[in-house]
From TrEMBL:
UniProt xrefs under InterPro entries: Exonuc_VII_L (IPR003753), Exonuc_VII_lsu_C (IPR020579), OB-fold_nuc-bd_dom (IPR025824)
Gene symbol of the encoding locus: xseA
Protein name, as recorded: Exodeoxyribonuclease 7 large subunit
Enzyme class, broadest EC rank: hydrolase
Residue ranges constituting the OB-fold nucleic acid binding domain according to the UniProt record: 5-94
Organism per entry: Micromonospora sonchi
Length: 390
C-alpha cells in the first residue's frame, strides 16, 4: 500500500498547476487558523473536491465569498497518502462576476439549442384536465402556495404530489433532478411543474444548469417551468414543454377554470338548444308548405285531372279511329267499284263471251283457229263447247 500510495502521489505531483472552475459547496474558516478549507463541486456532475488555501489568498481574491458562488482558482492537485484522498491547493481565487456568468450561460444556451433541446417540434401539450400534478418547489415557499391555491381555486378536485427541494445553493440541482426522476416515474402524474419565486441571476443559476436542462429534456411527462417573474428567463424555460411567467400563471395553464368551463358548457347547450329549435321550426314550416300543395291538400284532384285527360284522349282516339275507318271504307268502295268496272265478269254480264282453246289460250282473231278446232265459250253464267265449221 505504501508503494502504491507513493507512486500515485508522485504521478499526481507531476500534473502541475491547473485552472479549475466550480461552485463553492462549503466554506470552513477556523478562528485563528490561516488555512481555509473549501468544498468545490461541479454544477453539472456529482463531483466535488476539497480545496485548501491561505486566508490571505481568499481575502485578496474573493473576500465576500459565500456558499453557492462560482469561482475560478489556480491550484495544484495533491494526493494525501495517509488518507488516500485527493485535494487542491490554491494560490489564487477569483469569484466569477455577473458578466462572465451571463457569457457562460449564453454559450451554454447556444450549445443546447444546437443539440435540439429547445426544438418546438418536440414540446408536448399538457393534458386538458390532468389526473394528478407533480410539483417541485421550495418548502413552504410562496411559489408553492401560489400554485396550490390558484389551481384549487380554479379546479377544486385537482390532486398534487409535491416534492420540496432546495431551489438555490449548491445542493439545488441534484435535489431537483432526483425529484424529476421520481415524479416522471410515477404513472399517475400527468404533468410536472417546476416552481420558484423571483430572485437575482445568482439565485436562479440552478435553473440554468446543464444537468437540470438535460434532465427536463429526458422527461417523458410534460414539464411546465414557472421560475421567477416574467423578465426572468433561465435556460430550463427554453427546454420545458410550457413556460409560465409566474407560478400563478403555471396554475392557470395546467388546470382549467371550473367556472369558465361551466359557462362555456352552458353557452354550448344554449347554442345547441337554439340550433335544434331552429331546425325543428324550419322543418315544420317545410312540412306545412308541402302539405299546403294541391297534390297533398287534395290528392284526388290529381286523379280527377288525369281521369279527365284520359277521357279526352280516349275520345280523341275514337274520333281519329272513326275518321280513319270511314276514309278507309270510302276508299275501299271506290276501289271495288273500279275493280267491278274493269272486271271481265262485268263485260260478260253485258252479253260478251270469252273464246278459249282447250289449253286455255284466248282466241282474239279468226285466223287463230281452223275448221274443226274445238273451242270453249265462257259466258257470264256457265260455259259452252263449240267446234269451228268454216
Amino acid at each position: 500500500m505504501r508503494v502504491v500510495s507513493q507512486k500515485i502521489g508522485a504521478w499526481v505531483a507531476r500534473l502541475g498547476w491547473v485552472w479549475v472552475d466550480g461552485q463553492v459547496a462549503q466554506i470552513s474558516r477556523r478562528p485563528g487558523a490561516s488555512t481555509v478549507f473549501l468544498t468545490l463541486r461541479d454544477p453539472s456532475a456529482e463531483l466535488s473536491l476539497t480545496v485548501t488555501t491561505n486566508r490571505d489568498v481568499l481575502d485578496a481574491g474573493a473576500p465576500e465569498l459565500r456558499e453557492g458562488a462560482r469561482v475560478v482558482l489556480h491550484a495544484k492537485p495533491e494526493f494525501y497518502a495517509a488518507r488516500g484522498t485527493l485535494s487542491l491547493r490554491a494560490d489564487e481565487i477569483r469569484q466569477v462576476g455577473l458578466g462572465e456568468l451571463l457569457a457562460r450561460l449564453e454559450k451554454l444556451k447556444k450549445l443546447l439549442a444546437a443539440e435540439g433541446l429547445f426544438d418546438r417540434a418536440r414540446k408536448r401539450r399538457p393534458p386538458f384536465l390532468p389526473q394528478r400534478i407533480g410539483l417541485i418547489t421550495g418548502r413552504a415557499s410562496a411559489a408553492e402556495r401560489d400554485v396550490l391555491t390558484n389551481a384549487r381555486r380554479r379546479w377544486p378536485a385537482v390532486e398534487f404530489r409535491t416534492v420540496n427541494v432546495a431551489v438555490q445553493g449548491p445542493g439545488a440541482v441534484p435535489q431537483i433532478v432526483d425529484a424529476l426522476k421520481v415524479l416522471d416515474a410515477d404513472p399517475s402524474i400527468d404533468v410536472i411543474i417546476l416552481a420558484r419565486g423571483g430572485g437575482g441571476i445568482e439565485d436562479l443559476l440552478p435553473f440554468s444548469d446543464e444537468a437540470l436542462c438535460r434532465a427536463v429534456y429526458a422527461c417523458r411527462t410534460p414539464v411546465v417551468s414557472a421560475i421567477g417573474h416574467e423578465t426572468d428567463a433561465p435556460l430550463v424555460d427554453y427546454v420545458a414543454d410550457v413556460r409560465a411567467s409566474t407560478p400563478t400563471d403555471a396554475a392557470k395553464r395546467v388546470v382549467p377554470d371550473l367556472a369558465e368551463e361551466l359557462r362555456l358548457i352552458n353557452q354550448a347547450r344554449h347554442r345547441l338548444h337554439r340550433a335544434v329549435h331552429n331546425l325543428v321550426d324550419r322543418e315544420t314550416h317545410r312540412i306545412d308548405a308541402l302539405r299546403s300543395r294541391p297534390v297533398l291538400a287534395r290528392p284526388q284532384l290529381m286523379i280527377e285531372q288525369r281521369a279527365g285527360d284520359l277521357a279526352a284522349l280516349r275520345q280523341r282516339a275514337e274520333r281519329c279511329l272513326t275518321h280513319r275507318l270511314g276514309a278507309a271504307d270510302d276508299e275501299l268502295r271506290h276501289t271495288l267499284a273500279r275493280l267491278r268496272a274493269l272486271s271481265p265478269a262485268a263485260t260478260l254480264d253485258r252479253g260478251y263471251a270469252i273464246v278459249q282453246r282447250p289449253d286455255g289460250h284466248v282466241v282474239r282473231a279468226a285466223t287463230e283457229v281452223t275448221p274443226g278446232d274445238p273451242l270453249r265459250l265462257r259466258l257470264a253464267q256457265g260455259e259452252l263447247s263449240a267446234t269451228v265449221n268454216t
